[in-house]
Amino acid sequence: MQFMLLFSRQGKLRLQKWYVPLSDKEKKKITRELVQTVLARKPKMCSFLEWRDLKIVYKRYASLYFCCAIEDQDNELITLEIIHRYVELLDKYFGSVCELDIIFNFEKAYFILDEFLLGGEAQETSKKNVLKAIEQADLLQEVRALATA
Amino acid sequence: MRGLAVFISDIRNCKSKEAEIKRINKELANIRSKFKGDKALDGYSKKKYVCKLLFIFLLGHDIDFGHMEAVNLLSSNKYTEKQIGYLFISVLVNSNSELIRLINNAIKNDLSSRNPTFMCLALHCIANVGSREMAEAFAGEIPRILVAGDTMDSVKQSAALCLLRLYKTSPDLVLMGEWTSRVVHLLNDQHMGVVTAAISLITCLSQKNPDEFKTCVSLAVSRLSRIVSSASTDLQDYTYYFVPAPWLSCKLLRLLQCYPPPEDGAVKGRLVECLETILNKAQEPPKSKKVQHSNAKNAILFEAISLIIHYDSEPNLLVRACNQLGQFLQHRETNLRYLALESMCTLASSEFSHEAVKTHIETVINALKTERDVSVRQRAADLLYAMCDRSNAKQIVAEMLSYLETADYSIREEMVLKVAILAEKYAVDYSWYVDTILNLIRIAGDYVSEEVWYRVIQIVINRDDVQGYAAKTVFEALQAPACHENMVKVGGYILGEFGNLIAGDPRSSPLVQFNLLHSKFHLCSVPTRALLLSAYIKFINLFPETKSTIQEVLRSDSQIRNSDVELQQRAVEYLKLSSIASTDVLATVLEEMPPFPERESSILAKLKKKKGPGAVSVNELEEGKREGGELNGGGERGGDSSAIASTPSPSADLLGLRAGPPVTAAAPSAGSLLVDVFSEAGVNDDGFLRFVCKNNGVLFENQLLQIGIKSEYRQNLGRMYLFYGNKTSVQFVTFTTTVTCPGDTLVLEPLIEGGAQVQQVINIECLTDFSDAPLLNIKFRYGGALQNLTLKLPVTINKFFQPTEMASHDFFQRWKQLSLPQQEAQKIFKANHAMDTEVLKAKLLGLGMALLENVDPNPENFVCAGVIQTKAQQVGSLLRLEPNAQAQMYRLTVRSSKDTVSKRLCELLAEQF
């Protein structure tokens, strides 16, 4: 996977994760272009499209679009399920996640993503294991917080 | 972090962009003052401000400070501060070297902390940044962490993917070496998460070094087999909506696609069994109605089909795959229809499944007509193109043509190219081909590129059996009140050449033809009008009865005084030509165009350029090329091929700028086609003689390619480095070089990236003395056009000289010994360059002989001695160069123990001074 973008129906970028080195300018250009392209598509259309020399896989969850760019040989359907698993992880962590959770706790959204995907590849696909790692980290925070209190 | 939440709310409450920017600037000023303030900030505040900066950056604003504070957080012993520090560093990578040093230090500390949570954070940061500096610092350490027995599973997972990222950015720094086998064995790890992460790394490494990693094949097959045969609950949390380990399965199947089918029968049998099981499962009723279940299941299925297609050796599996995809073609899920069309495209190119794919033609045509999503229709069009062959070409072309009338603008040009290619490739009768292309122009004239209509003209000119039909059809097409300008161009050209073939019919008499063309004239652009003027002068030759009418037109002010230079010049020249030239001269000058030399269809080149080899397989295109050539009539006209080769391609003259009288138009053939720089070039030896006295430099250069040379010689051996530089921004494909003469044929890695340089090494051994230089032939495709170039490699006999020092006495004694007339070669020649003593000395030294001082009684003269080393023998040679400054002449005398050597050295050197 080359990058993942989360944006709202209004086109506001909520999360961006780049697995290839690109300049900030290029990133902004890509984001603008893709947000426009994806938002223009109708609901029943297929979730895949060719874009430059990449394949775009996207899916909408409530007000949020999750959009991944994968390479020619990557598998579209499994990427769709990567998106879904990430949504499940967010959902489980925040308890029925909504866009606001991701806005206000954006750093958590990044941490969860890092536990699940690293370098653009699935690192750990077990929901339990990912959440365990995040919970452990949270626990670490609380312990420290108690210790310093 | 309450402050952060408040800030985010503030931003969200901003009513306008301006208000938002104002709020952000206020916050930035605040943070800056806190960071600069005298009071030391506590960790919590630092974390909060760094987090705010990050938020501002992610909103799309530039952040140019805070890096140092983030780096400070890295060494905090509070996990949450460290975590925010790492997140900031990962997102806002900074190339300041002092910072990088500090970051790397912090990472190093965390990696050696033995605290798995900290280690993972550090590894995540490396994987997210992936810079070369990080690779330099950690590429050696991470493999050790990855394979160490006491590393926690979660750390192993991060380490594997971290290494993958570093390998992608700096493959030269990540050396697996001794770790290879232990990394491969991670496929056997008990922890599914470790396998899932490690396999991505192994796949990437296998693609680059298949041999070193080939033991992974059998491990992957057994792992896959265990997963495929497991019950849906066996794998606990790695089962996803009743599908056991879908991600891992896909990755395993993907890894296997890096290799040919397993040679070991047992392994292969087991794999085939897996593939069959996967195909069988597709037929079973779903275990859940959830789309996640079917997606995960089908993801594996599609990956398995990709592997089956990759092997392309199991007819049974290929046909089963095709049937499965056939079912998906009518599935209610748009995604599945899309993927089935895409996947079938590759199946169509396999000989085993081509026929099976063809049976779905009706469904695919239906998809082209009824799919509501343009990206799906695009796939359908691609598949129709891929499944087309002689048996169904007429149907497919007709469907594509009718689809074109309503096709989306975004895909029209490509559709036009595809129709044009199919029509040409599978034309059995050429009237069908002509009809198709004219229809194409009628339906989608704006999208018909030059290549397409040039091509129809080339083909009509080369096939005399279709010329009459073409003239008639184009004449009819021009009757339409509004016809596309491209139609006028084709019409003008074809009637200008072959209008006589239909002139017998009073309905298309010469004057009718002329009036028809001329009725379009005023609506056309300048290039088309120029073409029409040329058609008119051809008319004067074909039909003398039209002469006065046409002269009248040419003479009118709107032509002869046209403000456009090109039109005016044509009008003046054609008018003059028609008035003064005799009928015979006119007939010669305006003779029918000679056939076009056989060459690759320029349309194909265009499609390749547009799409790259992605959408349509390269083989497919190559096949097209061959058939295209045959259609071009080159084969049948083989008898006068020499005439063809020496005739400048006539496409230039009607279209080219300096048309004038066609006979003098010696414009290169490249005019109408894509770049064809080397066209019919013979052996190019411009560079050759410059290398007699030197070993390094640029051998050849044109707009596309630069070839540099470095060479070194010792005894009878040499080594030559050729550097091929691609000067364009486009890839050269199928780049091959062949060296002939020394006997060895070398094949270079067949790809030169745009802007890249590729090096080739040639080892040379001199067996015996020689005169003819080896030839280097280079072939490659640039934007689809085949480039062919032959160069003389500057390997000359003098390269194998071993200098020999000797005293004056010895020199003259040997000189006398070599006194047979054939042992001496002499040349007297004019100086080509200034007679500068130092330059001469440098050249003689470059020649490879020893330059002997104080030997010749005349200090102006130069004498040299050396022995040429060949495998067969040694040839001693002596040389004497006598400059005559007054006459600007040289006398060169070479004596060798072998006559051919003397002669050759003399020839080579005579050009050097």
From TrEMBL, chain A:
<comment type="similarity">
    <text>Belongs to the adaptor complexes small subunit family.</text>
</comment>
<dbReference type="GO" id="GO:0030121">
    <property type="term" value="C:AP-1 adaptor complex"/>
</dbReference>
<dbReference type="GO" id="GO:0035615">
    <property type="term" value="F:clathrin adaptor activity"/>
</dbReference>
<dbReference type="GO" id="GO:0005905">
    <property type="term" value="C:clathrin-coated pit"/>
</dbReference>
<keyword id="KW-0333">Golgi apparatus</keyword>
<keyword id="KW-0813">Transport</keyword>
<keyword id="KW-0168">Coated pit</keyword>
<comment type="subunit">
    <text>Adaptor protein complex 1 (AP-1) is a heterotetramer composed of two large adaptins (gamma-type subunit AP1G1 and beta-type subunit AP1B1), a medium adaptin (mu-type subunit AP1M1 or AP1M2) and a small adaptin (sigma-type subunit AP1S1 or AP1S2 or AP1S3). Binds to MUC1.</text>
</comment>
<dbReference type="InterPro" id="IPR044733">
    <property type="entry name" value="AP1_sigma"/>
</dbReference>
<dbReference type="GO" id="GO:0006886">
    <property type="term" value="P:intracellular protein transport"/>
</dbReference>
<protein>
    <recommendedName>
        <fullName>AP complex subunit sigma</fullName>
    </recommendedName>
</protein>
<feature type="domain" description="AP complex mu/sigma subunit">
    <location>
        <begin position="1"/>
        <end position="140"/>
    </location>
</feature>
<dbReference type="InterPro" id="IPR016635">
    <property type="entry name" value="AP_complex_ssu"/>
</dbReference>
<keyword id="KW-0968">Cytoplasmic vesicle</keyword>
<comment type="function">
    <text>Subunit of clathrin-associated adaptor protein complex 1 that plays a role in protein sorting in the late-Golgi/trans-Golgi network (TGN) and/or endosomes. The AP complexes mediate both the recruitment of clathrin to membranes and the recognition of sorting signals within the cytosolic tails of transmembrane cargo molecules.</text>
</comment>
<dbReference type="InterPro" id="IPR011012">
    <property type="entry name" value="Longin-like_dom_sf"/>
</dbReference>
<dbReference type="InterPro" id="IPR022775">
    <property type="entry name" value="AP_mu_sigma_su"/>
</dbReference>
<keyword id="KW-0472">Membrane</keyword>
<dbReference type="InterPro" id="IPR000804">
    <property type="entry name" value="Clathrin_sm-chain_CS"/>
</dbReference>
<dbReference type="Pfam" id="PF01217">
    <property type="entry name" value="Clat_adaptor_s"/>
</dbReference>
<keyword id="KW-0653">Protein transport</keyword>
TrEMBL record, chain B:
<keyword id="KW-0472">Membrane</keyword>
<dbReference type="InterPro" id="IPR003164">
    <property type="entry name" value="Clathrin_a-adaptin_app_sub_C"/>
</dbReference>
<dbReference type="GO" id="GO:0006886">
    <property type="term" value="P:intracellular protein transport"/>
</dbReference>
<dbReference type="InterPro" id="IPR013041">
    <property type="entry name" value="Clathrin_app_Ig-like_sf"/>
</dbReference>
<feature type="binding site">
    <location>
        <begin position="2"/>
        <end position="3"/>
    </location>
    <ligand>
        <name>a 1,2-diacyl-sn-glycero-3-phospho-(1D-myo-inositol-3,4,5-trisphosphate)</name>
    </ligand>
</feature>
<dbReference type="GO" id="GO:0035615">
    <property type="term" value="F:clathrin adaptor activity"/>
</dbReference>
<keyword id="KW-0168">Coated pit</keyword>
<dbReference type="InterPro" id="IPR016024">
    <property type="entry name" value="ARM-type_fold"/>
</dbReference>
<comment type="subunit">
    <text>Adaptor protein complex 2 (AP-2) is a heterotetramer composed of two large adaptins (alpha-type subunit AP2A1 or AP2A2 and beta-type subunit AP2B1), a medium adaptin (mu-type subunit AP2M1) and a small adaptin (sigma-type subunit AP2S1).</text>
</comment>
<dbReference type="GO" id="GO:0030122">
    <property type="term" value="C:AP-2 adaptor complex"/>
</dbReference>
<comment type="similarity">
    <text>Belongs to the adaptor complexes large subunit family.</text>
</comment>
<keyword id="KW-0813">Transport</keyword>
<keyword id="KW-1003">Cell membrane</keyword>
<dbReference type="InterPro" id="IPR011989">
    <property type="entry name" value="ARM-like"/>
</dbReference>
<dbReference type="InterPro" id="IPR017104">
    <property type="entry name" value="AP2_complex_asu"/>
</dbReference>
<keyword id="KW-0254">Endocytosis</keyword>
<feature type="binding site">
    <location>
        <position position="44"/>
    </location>
    <ligand>
        <name>a 1,2-diacyl-sn-glycero-3-phospho-(1D-myo-inositol-3,4,5-trisphosphate)</name>
    </ligand>
</feature>
<dbReference type="InterPro" id="IPR009028">
    <property type="entry name" value="Coatomer/calthrin_app_sub_C"/>
</dbReference>
<dbReference type="Pfam" id="PF02883">
    <property type="entry name" value="Alpha_adaptinC2"/>
</dbReference>
<dbReference type="InterPro" id="IPR012295">
    <property type="entry name" value="TBP_dom_sf"/>
</dbReference>
<comment type="function">
    <text>Component of the adaptor protein complex 2 (AP-2). Adaptor protein complexes function in protein transport via transport vesicles in different membrane traffic pathways. Adaptor protein complexes are vesicle coat components and appear to be involved in cargo selection and vesicle formation. AP-2 is involved in clathrin-dependent endocytosis in which cargo proteins are incorporated into vesicles surrounded by clathrin (clathrin-coated vesicles, CCVs) which are destined for fusion with the early endosome.</text>
</comment>
<feature type="region of interest" description="Disordered">
    <location>
        <begin position="615"/>
        <end position="647"/>
    </location>
</feature>
